[in-house]
Amino acid sequence: MSDNKAALSAFREEVAAWMAENVPADPGFLLPLTFLEVGTEQQLDFLREWQHKLWSAGYLGMHWPTEFGGQGADPAYQYVVDKELGKHRAPIIFNTIGLNWVGPLLLDMGTHEEKAKYIKNILSGDEIWCQGFSEPDHGSDLGAVQTRAVREGDDYVVNGSKIWTTLGNYADHMILLARTNPQAERKYDGLSFFLSPMKIDGVEAHPIRKVTGEYGFNQTFFTDARIPASCLMGEDGGGWRVAMKTLEYERGVTAGQASGYWGVTVQVDDMIEELAKFEHDGEPLLSDPIVRDDLVGFIMESKALTLCGRRMAVPALNSDYPMGLALSVKYRGTEFERRMKQYTASKQGAQSALYVGDADAVSGGFWQRAYFSNFGATIGGGTTQVQANIIAEHVLGLPK
Amino acid sequence: MSLMQNVAISVTEEQGMLLDVARGFVRDQAPIDAIRSQLETDTGFDPAIWQAMVDMGWAGIALPDSVGGAGMGVGSAIPVFEALGGGLLGTPLLSTTLAGQLVWRAAGESAAEWLGRLSGGMVGTVALLDHADWGAANMGVTLDAAGKLVGSKHFVADAGVAESFVVVASEAGMPALALVDRSAIEDDAISDNVLIDLTKRAANVDFTGVMPAQVLRGEAVASALRDTLLLGALLTAAETTGAAGKCLASITDYLKTRKQFGKLIGSYQALKHPTVDIYVGMENARSFIYHGATVVGDEPLSIDAEIACRMAKVAADDVMVFAGDRSVQFHGGFGFTWECDSTLFIRRAQWAQQMYGGAIHHRKRLATLLLDT
Q1: How many CB atoms within 10 Å of residue B60?
Q2: Rounded CA gap, B50 and B1, in Å?
Q3: For the domain A3-127, what is the CATH superfamily, name and number?
Q4: pTM for this one?
Q5: What 8-state DSSP symbol labels residue B233?
Q6: Is A250 a catalytic residue?
Q7: In chain A, which residues have their Cβ closer than 8 Å to the Cβ of B275?
Q8: How is domain A268-395 classified at the CATH fold level?
Q9: Which of A296, A307, A325 lies nearest to residue B367, judging by beta carbons?
Q10: B247-264 pLDDT, tens digit each
Q11: Which of A51, A176, A222, B47 gives A125 a disulfide partner, CB atoms 3.0 to 4.6 angstroms apart?
Q12: A299 in contact with B, Cβ within 8 Å
């Protein structure tokens, strides 16, 4: 074992020991499955305290600079922490937009001032971030954003509306994509990117209820909201490039995220363990040949995802389509999980029909809720269908 | 136990070089016109191409150097077969490689002389199937008291050009391998199959009355046979994955150049999205074959290796059948013609999906391996 490996393995033991002591017990109320479903103050306070505790212990932002509150270590250390969080079935690390999109973006493209101002509070959970990209009429077609930001003196005056603003009703800041120049020849050149305050006059976030029955999304309304011009990130009219970079972090195409543990993770093993509890025609469900064949398919798909992820690190096997594996991670992974959860939710006999809140629901209705919740992953950050277009155009070179 | 336990995937420097060299060879020596010129010949390949492959040491690519092979491990055959598949280049290399594996695993260095000839370019093949069932015991050919073979084998790959046959036989109820020289077989005992894939050849062979040059017996035979069937699945999967990659490239080329209703047809999502699924399926299959290359070795195959071989075959079959099928469809009327390479791809897909067991054969065994342990 090399020194690196030995150090990493020692770190894993240290983290596991810490988690065994410090992962909070079931609080007695429903916790969100992902960062997209933080719907009550009670959940928010609990998760904020948990994130703060993890960061204070030195286990968040492992590879972010110490100067801004990180640990200055190798990214492998964050991976270890995320794995251990999953193993210990810890509550999620909820400030995801800050930790995974805004943080890496600022470290990559931000000024020193921006880094100093925002990064540490992202890690500590003291400041919550949301994202203002999608609009009611423009979800996947981001270039068509209509929210206006008009320069007036030292401010921009913002009018319009954003939708699917996860954590919007709790957030301190928003990464906001707005149109500053409607006359630009290319629609993309009329957009600017702001690190915009949320708790100011003229900004209102209205929670939206989801298919799971829970909250987490908002529609955010801007009515003559004045934001300081210093909130502009990059150039006026240069917002598209920053937004695209943000999406690379959001979709996991580019690394640098402070914690991938943004949702309760489910593995194919969990699925099989759950299904092993059921019977079908008086026999164990897992002895049914059709179910067995289905499960072989799921196991293979899971293994293919892992192998493809690992293959990215083998240059000799990436020359045909250099960005292909990275650009297809979201396309494959989110759809796979959706199908896995739907399958598990639907093989519980009559109990398949029960939902969260029923005492007889299997694992508290986890799979039913997780299936619905998973649409956040197959739709958010660019739908599966948009991902297919991206792969077709950017990997295979097919025309728009 | 985690089902994901072994997810090793790596490529040695030698394997990386082999992939480049083999792809270059196929590009330069076996362009599609050269492949097409052999479709309706007796042997299906150009002897000069085969000789060039032998000269590069590929006949013994999977064998240890102690028996004249390349000594790079059986996994090194993966990049070679992936590249050959990418060119739809047939040749008896697959048959020869598997014959070598079977004999080496059954007899080791005691068969060094025969294996040395094989590495030197003697065409070998395994005569396995009694009939259509890859899952059967296939022990229908027997060795009689006089030491002669009785019975026929079906679908013997490259039987028309093979110089030595490894006949899977039974002797007093035990599996044995009979090494048979071509010279011991009458010409009329070999009757060619009409194969769906015109880059491949096979025949039924009646071995009745034939005296083997040598018989391999013992405990190692059964395990050698099992491992060779698994390696047959893996190497076929490698070849199929290469073909799927080439098929994908031919689809995307057409989608980028063909216009209908004033637009390039590749802009239509009804064509675009299934093409993405071919791409994803091809990448999956590629990950499985190189995972296989990483976990198979010269020693008897482990459970992990068995799982890898079976998964590779399932993944490669699935994507190639889909790709070949969609290739014909997406090329429209042209796709339906002999002139279009889709013809070659769909025929390769239908040939490959049964070789060494189809998806159902392997998935059934994977269910046991994965769910019953």
Answers
A1: 25
A2: 46
A3: Acyl-CoA dehydrogenase/oxidase, N-terminal domain (1.10.540.10)
A4: 0.91
A5: H
A6: yes
A7: 392, 396, 398
A8: Butyryl-CoA Dehydrogenase, subunit A; domain 3 (1.20.140)
A9: A296
A10: 999 999 999 999 999 999
A11: A51
A12: yes
